């Protein structure tokens, strides 16, 4: 059973003569416990799709269902809450606050989620960083960390709200092969061991072996949707 | 966490933080000193009426300032005494004249003449445990202020000088009776004043009036005015305001002080606006990330407002410390700024308001953040 479902999703940027179609009637279900790669050439609509499915952008047509509810038409306040309670985001540039340490960056996300006391948030942030292999680097500033380490801090931050769905945009783009492999292995473990749904937008062919499912998008439409087990 | 992010964002770029603080400190010092000087100016320009203990001043028509009097005949005093409700009416002389130092140099002074037996207009801030009335009884005695010793060439009591060519002997001192026109106040008796000014024995500048207990001052003013239509009758408060207004706005001195204070506010506002906006622009991807992970607009606003409040607090503390030092150092100057506690509080409120207003530009930018941009 799909956790997150896109139904006849279409999106166009601009209007009139300046209209640029980005997605055209996409149907896609995201399963828990599975790593789904969204691949395709630049401008194919991958990022638009992940923005809409992550409640960051409203579709021009179609809808996004989470637990049977249409989240694409909710008010901004509700969408904010939906994101906070269900989604974890990982970005190519990781967007860590440079003046905060690794543990403080994760604590900020816990503060946004607002479920923990300060002392508990500190403990929880340390646990999350330890889970991504950074237990020894809690007080390091981003500038003093490698690209792979920064990306793992970003993953720990994404996990702060204990999300059911993790959306990652080119998480390995700025990493070498070893660090890229580490990051995706971490995401795969989160899917397989914790039952989370992981969606990764990528151009990186090195990580295709670690995915359970690859959805190839071209010209705003799904061109190929294949699983490793052939379904 | 909001306070931590605000503090680290504010101080992350040390140079920018220093510039911010300099801007705020500059603003606090400039506004504080200008308003302090303005207050002192208001106080000193109204010091004659406000220190007189009179309820009402009767002046010649058209007198705008207590220092610049127009002569009246002492007959006025008797006319005033004839108005029901008047308890006491006393003659008072205030006028510019010249003081001659031992080396022959002349200095402009404001001579204040009051009868030794008067109940109003007596010298204030007398130094030491002396009876001002007794000092006024000396035939050629004058009382000068310590602030102007050097200017007048005075070193102690018993010294002889000339006022308008008439011998004057220093018999006592006041301490802190400031003037704003660089013409020190010299107290003497009514008779001495007339003699030193070369006036007749019926000459006065003002009639100072004390109302009988329970009499409404406004009504008494109207009654005296009706009784003596060719004079101007005002409450002491109105005369004090009129004097301050005259010197503040007809000389341009007040406008200059006010404009300087406003400039200080503007400079502080511009510097803080620029810094907070630059800090916000630098951190837009991180702010967009916070929005994407579910942080509401209020969370982001709190970070920027926190920066504004922290900058205001630190800038104010440094600024007010400098102001207090300057006020202390200038305590004996003739134009020293004053810094009462309420003004320190008002400066704090002003500083926080300026910084919060400066934050609104950044808040507007945060309001336009699109959380979707984190995936672009």
Overall description:
The complex is a heterodimer of chains A (231) and B (376). With 231 residues, chain A is α/β, with parallel strands linked by helices. Chain A has helices at 46-53, 76-86, 102-113, 118-131, 147-158, 177-194, and strands spanning 4-13, 20-30, 35-39, 61-66, 69-70, 87-90, 165-169, 197-201, 213-218, 221-227. In chain A, helix 3 crosses helix 4 (118-131), helix 3 packs parallel to helix 5 and helix 4 (118-131) crosses helix 5. In chain A, the strands form 2 sheets. In chain A, strands 6-7-8-3-9-10 form a 6-stranded mixed sheet. In chain A, strands 2-1-4-5 form a 4-stranded antiparallel sheet, covered by helices on one side. The two termini of chain A are 14 Å apart. In chain B, helix 1 crosses helix 12 (297-329), helix 2 (14-45) packs across helix 9 and helix 2 (14-45) crosses helix 12. Chain B has 13 helices and 11 strands. In chain B, the strands form 2 sheets. In chain B, strands 1, 3, 4, 5, 6, 7, 8, 10 and 11 form a 9-stranded mixed sheet that branches. Chain B has a two-stranded antiparallel sheet with strand order 2-9. The radius of gyration of chain B is 29 Å and the shape is elongated. Chain B is α+β, with helices and mostly antiparallel strands. Chain B folds into 2 domains: 2-44 and 252-375, no CATH class; 61-230, no CATH class. At the A-B interface, helix 1, helix 2, strand 6 and helix 3 of A face helix 1 and helix 11 of B.
What would the principal axes of the Cα set say about the shape of chain B? elongated
Whole-angstrom Rg of chain B: 29 Å
| Biggest chain pair interface | A-B, 37 and 26 residues
The percent range for helix content of chain B is 40-55%
| String of helices and strands of chain A | EEEHEEHEHHHEHEEE
Shape of chain A: globular
Low-pLDDT runs of 5+ residues of chain A are none
Number of strands of chain B: 11
Total separate domains of chain B: 2
With strands numbered from the N-terminus, the spatial order across the biggest sheet of chain A is 6-7-8-3-9-10
Calculate Rg of chain A over CA atoms: 18 Å
